[in-house]
Amino acid sequence: MALLKGRANYLCRHRFDAARAQMPLEGLRRGSSRLLGRIGRWAAVTRTGDLAEVPGLADSSLVWAQVTSTRDNCPGVRCPQYDDCHVVAARRAAQEADLVIVNHHLLLADLALKEDGFGDLLGSADAVILDEAHQIPDLATRFFGTTVSGRQVETLLAEARALRMAHGLPMPQVESALVETERRLRALAAVLPRAVGRRTWETDDGQAEAAARALVGALEGLGTRLAEAADEPTFAAATARARELAAGFTRVVCAQAEEGARTVETSARGFSLGLLPFDISERFQSLATRQRSAWIFTWPRSRLAGTSGTSPSAWGWMARAHCRSTAPSATRTRDSCTCLRACRIPPRRPSSRR
Asked: What is the C-alpha separation between 353 and 93, in angstroms, rounded?
């Protein structure tokens, strides 16, 4: 059995070494310095690299973002720490295991990779068992929609400043673009609702939309300055990230009413803007049926209220979810229905593993 999480949960040794090397240059706050020291002591003994093992390290901490990788900034097989990579080790263990436990988000990411033809994270499976399946409509709607956040912009700014310091160059135009982006980010946060929670994003007064468009312009400008700064893969990745964020904010701000529900979510960690499609049922069913696997959905009995009242038997049934968006909307209400169909679990395929 293997437990597999998304890459953002695992320590990246390469980025951790870079963060420690930049500590004297960046003048990190004492709390951040202490966290890096704690991570360093833990990194010497951990077998999994799962940052959840580090006491006192919250996933909302900027240090977390500094010592983990993303698909954009991971150098892959070119990484000097590739042979000791915790993400690679975790995925290798998952490929070799008979039973793999993942969260919903990682399963959706795996399905999307298969859809795009870019391989997969989890490999093939004889059966997929989804526990707490009543959460899937909301999670899948968010996953297949567009979400951008202030935290993503803050991470980009921190990484761009680290790159500038690592090269030891003034780069005044890059610094000016960083300051402008930071200013526009604060301006947008200031006009968004302060109450914690998710709600429909109303822009009747135009302030929030204008602030978001200004942030888009700042991100585009930052991407241009980063592209001009240096012809290196690290700067190219930061450039691509700035442009990707600008495009994401643009999709949300400029979305037409029929494209989905625009939402804003605020929390202690900051804000996020989203564009949630109204109906993802066809896409989800298409992804699920691409795999020649049995799909078994389980959920609390109380969640069956208002449905057919029939629950899956212990053998031979698969729940096929017809997912309707749970996004708040003036014209749509919560609507999630489930039906069942009989499905034999396929016989186990011969394995090449011993």
From this structure: 12
What whole-number distance in Å separates Cα of residue 345 and Cα of residue 322? 21
Q: Which residue has the tokens 């977390």?
A: 64
Residues 6+ apart with CB under 8 A from 171: 164, 229
Q: Which residues pair with 275 in a beta bridge?
A: 146, 262
Compute the distance between CA of residue 35 and CA of residue 16 in angstroms, rounded to an integer.
Answer: 11
Domains annotated on the chain, with CATH: 1-97 (no CATH), 102-144+278-354 (no CATH), 146-276 (1.10.275.40)
149 membership: H or E segment, kind and range: strand 146-149
Mean pLDDT score of the chain: 78
pLDDT digit string (tens) for 203-212?
Answer: 656 889 999 9
- Residue 216: how many CB atoms within 10 A of its CB? 22
Q: Phi-psi region for residue 23, left (φ > 0), alpha (ψ -120 to 50) or beta?
A: alpha
Hey, what are 224's tokens?
Answer: 């241009």
**What residues contact 339, with CB distance under 8 A and at least 6 apart?**
308, 320, 322
**Confidence band of 344 (pLDDT split at 50, 70, 90):** very low
Place of tokens 């400029």: 254
